[in-house]
Specification:
Blueprint: E1 17-21, H1 28-34, E2 40-43, H2 53-59, E3 63-67, H3 76-88, E4 95-100, H4 102-115, E5 119-123, E6 134-138, E7 144-148, E8 156-160, H5 169-187, H6 194-216, H7 221-238, H8 245-257, H9 261-276, H10 281-288, H11 298-309, H12 324-332, H13 345-357
Parallel strand pairs: 1-8, 2-3, 2-4, 4-5, 5-8
Antiparallel strand pairs: 6-7
């Protein structure tokens, strides 16, 4: 380690139990028994509803009820509806089992922390939310607010690769880039450390290799395994450090303008990195090492990756209006997260405009 990197740090290991592999969902009943749980509320969303039957069968008599209306950005209105449903079940529930991506996990978190009961996640995408003690909730005013509490962290997470094989190519791509975004910000977070950096780089490396392979062959067992492995690592570092400009922009744009979650992360990531690039030379160097096609420039590496994945690059393609740009910049500068580069409204507005227009990212601001 170079002398300039020899800085004191703090590291807290995640207390979540992780069960990873192919077919590992068969261990769900024994995990409930281990925790002495017998009345689970199953949470899913519209996408997960078509895959949930095996979970219902596994839960058997331990299934107290199913709520299948999880929505992106965790609207408080949906949470309140789910709470009313949970309170109507008798005997009372003693656990939450969420099945799906970030929407199901988010609602599961919101319920478990309010009801003070354990939360077991079964993830089917690469979102990473399952490894954090954060939940972003959208109020009636349309503003998404992030809440942090150690009790929000799910106690057990199932990563069964088999549930990701059916995820479409387009969703796999944006969900994977969403995961990469967590690791990118972890590299320059205020409270990053050498352990987090190692895990973050390994996560980006695994996903940057696996995602283009999934685009070419969505059923590739090795690509699906490596992608979920990378997503777990990226989610882990998201749960270990604070977040910065990228996540602030995504929370602002997603929650306030109802943009799709993973797609927004995918569009914003290279632009947020380009904004911070002058202030994070070490992180830029580390990313070059794990992003193929970088040629010494991590922003180019991200642009190359997104091109390979054939993802949409413009917020306007998802319904954001040009006149929303100024409002987005205004919201993003309110209560800003810590960021390695000072948040300035003029260049920030330009970053949002480029995201809206779908331009390639470039570090010229």
């Amino acid at each position: 380690m170079e002398k300039q990197d020899m800085q004191a740090f703090e590291y807290i290991a995640s207390p979540s139990k992780v069960i990873f592999g192919s077919g590992v969902i068969s261990k769900l009943p024994s995990e409930l028994t281990r925790q002495n749980l017998s009345r689970a509320l199953l949470i899913t969303g519209p996408r997960g509803a078509s895959q949930v039957n095996p979970i219902i069968e596994l839960l058997g008599s331990k299934l107290a009820g199913t709520f299948s209306h999880a929505a992106q950005h965790t609207p408080l209105s949906v949470t309140n509806t789910a709470l009313r449903y949970a309170s109507s079940l008798s005997p009372s529930i003693d656990s939450i089992v969420s099945f799906g991506g970030g929407s199901a996990v988010g609602l599961g978190k919101a319920l478990s922390v309010r009801l003070e009961i354990p939360h077991i996640c079964i993830v089917t995408t690469y979102s990473g939310s399952e490894m954090t003690s954060l939940v972003g909730e959208t109020g009636e005013d349309g503003v998404k607010r992030t809440r942090s509490d150690p009790r929000i962290l799910p106690g057990c997470v199932f990563y069964d690769v088999d549930f990701t094989v059916g995820m479409g190519v387009a969703m796999s791509a944006v969900s994977g880039v969403n995961a990469i975004a967590h690791a990118v910000e972890a590299l320059y977070a205020r409270n990053t450390n050498p352990i987090v950096a190692l895990i973050a780089k390994e996560g980006v490396k695994a996903l940057a290799k696996a995602l283009p392979e999934i685009v070419e062959d969505p059923t590739s067992p090795s690509a699906r395994w490596n992608a979920l492995y990378g997503a777990w690592l990226c989610g882990y570092v998201l749960g270990s450090v604070s977040v910065g400009l990228h996540h602030k922009l995504c929370h602002t744009i997603g929650g306030s303008f109802n943009m799709p979650h993973a797609e927004t992360h995918t569009i914003v990531l290279p632009h947020a990195l380009s904004y911070n690039a002058p202030a994070v030379p070490k992180a830029m160097k580390e990313l070059v090492e794990v992003l193929p096609g970088s040629d010494g420039d991590a922003i180019k590496g991200l642009n190359v990756l997104l091109s390979k994945l054939k993802v949409k690059r413009a917020l306007k393609d998802f319904g954001m209006k040009e006149e929303d740009i100024d409002r987005a910049a205004e919201i993003a500068t309110m209560n800003p997260y810590w960021n390695p580069r000072e948040i300035e409204k003029r260049p920030l507005r330009e970053i949002i405009r480029r995201c809206w227009a779908g331009e390639d990212a470039r570090a010229d601001l």
